[in-house]
Write a structure and sequence with these properties.
two-stranded antiparallel ribbon; 2 domains; Alpha/beta knot; 9 strands; single chain
């Protein structure tokens, strides 16, 4: 898989992809993450990327030309399954979407800034719009990193135990059950006895019951769907 991220602030993405699972995935050749500085595609001497909105109003708008030049260059080099715009009013990211995107080959993630991008970008270049929540960030970089992380960790060979992702919250339309590790007793706080029993069928039954109870308490809407 290859993920190309288009941004005004490429240095913001240095850290997320330079550590832990995401770095190991790249080192193994399981994914290629390429960050593109949109200023390199500006045609003005000042490397301008934004301008005032037609009709007036507060805030600046990202210009169409640099975005078009960048996306067109990338698409001339390879085929892309999706060109995704990170925006607060996009489709809300969930585990099902992450699963779906992890099966793709090449993705472009466009990070918004200011008041967003010229609407013609959304109309003519974007195939999907994604939000990580109903709130506004300073830019789309952190959201793009979240989307990339949710996808990359699902790729075969990324996690040392590939079954781990299958038992994450939301994979079976439930949140994950409580988990415990050693010691079995700490300052009077004990691990549930069933987890120490070695009886796998009873353990799985307990975990399922706990998942349902936790989902009912924390994400009740999931049980109604």
């Amino acid at each position: 898989m290859r993920i190309d991220i288009i941004t005004l602030l490429p240095r913001l993405l240095d850290s997320p992809f330079s550590h832990s699972i995401l770095k190991r995935a790249q080192d193994k050749g399981l994914v290629e993450v390429v960050v593109h500085d949109l200023r390199e595609f500006s045609t003005s001497k000042q490397r301008q990327l934004d301008d005032y909105a037609y009709g007036g109003g507060a805030g600046m708008v990202m210009m169409i030309e640099p975005i078009d030049l960048c996306i067109s260059k990338l698409k001339a080099e390879r085929d892309y399954d999706e060109v995704i715009y990170m925006t607060p009013d996009g489709e809300l990211l969930n585990q099902g979407m992450a699963n779906e995107l992890s099966l793709k080959g090449n993705l472009i993630l466009l990070c918004g800034h200011y008041k967003g991008v010229d609407e013609r970008v959304r109309e003519h270049f974007i195939t999907r719009e994604i939000s990580i929540g109903d709130y506004v960030l300073s830019g789309g970089e952190l959201a793009a990193a979240v989307v990339a992380d949710s996808i990359i960790r699902l790729l075969p060979g990324v996690l040392s135990d590939e079954t781990s992702a299958l038992t994450d919250s939301f994979q079976d339309d439930l949140v994950a059950p409580p988990v415990y590790t050693r010691p079995a007793e700490y300052k009077g706080m004990e691990v549930p006895e069933v987890l120490l029993s070695g009886h796998q069928a009873k353990i799985e039954e307990w975990r399922y019951e706990q998942s349902v109870a936790r989902t009912r308490a924390r994400r009740p809407g999931m049980l109604d769907e």
